[in-house]
Amino acid sequence: MHDFMADLARRAGALVADLFHSGTYRQESKSGWDLVTEADLRSERLIVEAVQARYPGHGILAEESGAQGAQDDHLWLIDPLDGTLNFARGSGPWGVSIAYAHRGEVRLGMFYDPGADALYHARLGEGAYLNGRPLRVSGEDRLAAAVVVCSASHEPWREEAQRIALALWPPSTRSLRMTGCGAGALCALAAGTVDAMVEVDGGPWDYAAGALIVREAGGVATTVEGSAMTPRSRTVVAAATDRLHTSLTDALRQ
User: Fold this and answer.
1) Phi and psi, residue 149, nearest 5°
2) Within 13 Å and on the Cβ side, how many CA atoms surround 118?
3) Which among 102, 88, 149, 108 has a CA at the least distance from the CA of 6?
């Protein structure tokens, strides 16, 4: 399954990258602020069809097409293009996120960044890797010294996202960043290039793979409420260390 998922992420990433470089893809508004592009739809179709052919009894939860099949025992969570707005504006980061959960526990997760040919991958209990090289979080445990990623959102999460940004605005942290790519930000945390990440406006497909990769790299990831992450979680607070995670959640409560 690991090899199948890795091949699938790379194939979908190559498709998305070809459309990005062609500059001729279609795009439309899903809402007043959210976009969907031809790359999202074609990447998702490629992934879903491949999973259904290989594992016909497995359920799927994908960003664009929603839930398909039985969801209890075997569930694939698919974000065919995380960072769609970045993609549409010709910037980064963006990539393909895929996770597999068995009976409510994410067991396998990957994020592929085609621009860097970077495949972040993790299996439960077996560590996290970037193109086969082990990943480790930074180890930073001081909020005032931490580089933190958050999101700027729209309704219905706008006010909550604004409160989070204000709570974490320097000098409360060393630096506050907004990347527009939740899975990519979690992988950056796993790689030690940022120290923490908070988002309240995503879907399970945004965080399932990345949260596993963070934990397998030695970090901590929970929901904003402090609950354990599940394949249905729609918020995330992730940090390099327990102490930093506690400081971060305390700042958010205040």
Assistant:
1) -105, 135
2) 18
3) 108
User: DSSP assignment, residue 43?
Assistant: H
| Token pair recorded at residue 218 | 């030695």
Amino acid at 24: T
Contact 114, 21 (CB under 8 A): no
d(CA 140, CA 144): 10
Q: Is the pTM of this model over 0.90?
A: yes
Q: How many residues does the chain have?
A: 254
Q: What are phi and psi of 226, to 5 degrees?
A: 95, 5
The Cβ of residue 152 has, within 10 Å, a number of other Cβ atoms equal to 13
Q: Which residues make Cβ contacts (< 8 Å) with residue 205, sequence separation at least 6?
A: 61, 62, 63, 77, 78, 79, 82, 97, 99
Answer yes or no: are the C-beta atoms of 231 and 99 closer than 8 Å: yes
Q: For the chain (length 254 residues), average pLDDT per consecutive 10? A: 98 97 84 82 98 97 93 95 94 96 97 97 98 98 96 71 87 93 97 96 94 98 94 95 96 86
What tokens were used for 114? 């085609």
Asked whether 190 and 197 are in contact (CB, 8 A), the reply is: no
Distance (Å, rounded) from C-alpha 146 to C-alpha 185? 14
- In this prediction, residue 222 carries a pLDDT of 97
